[in-house]
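Sample log: Transcription antitermination protein NusB.
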Amino acid sequence: MNERHRAREALVQALYQWHYNPQDPRELEMEFLDAGYLEGAERAYFQHLLRKAVERHEEIDALIAPAIMPRRLSELTGVEQAILRAGVGELLEREDVPYRVVINEGVELAKSFGTDQGYRFVNAVLDRIARERRAQGDGGSAGDG
């Protein structure tokens, strides 16, 4: 597993925790660092995406809401919300990362942390948002993993 994937795993876990216990992302970073959750992770990537996902959570949720219709965000599991927030945050903040990489990572995270078929839902939602937010040519570039 590469450092960036590990950072994304930790990001999903941190956003899950933040969802149920909102706190300053810097405090959350320190908790994750002290507990060893960032071992093998690209720490700066984790920090940047966590801070931005928390800072922009209303904007991120507003992008997710129409993509999950007829469901509501409050109807999603905490894990689904965390994975989608992480993925949409990465789409918004890291245009250098091809959207297909973001989608594939979201799917892998959903397979690891979500329900049996949750990865299909995550794939569909991230794909829809990515196509709306990014130029069509972005997905064909080489990924960073």
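Observation: Confidence is low (pLDDT under 50) at residues 136-144.
Observation: The chain has one domain: 3-133.
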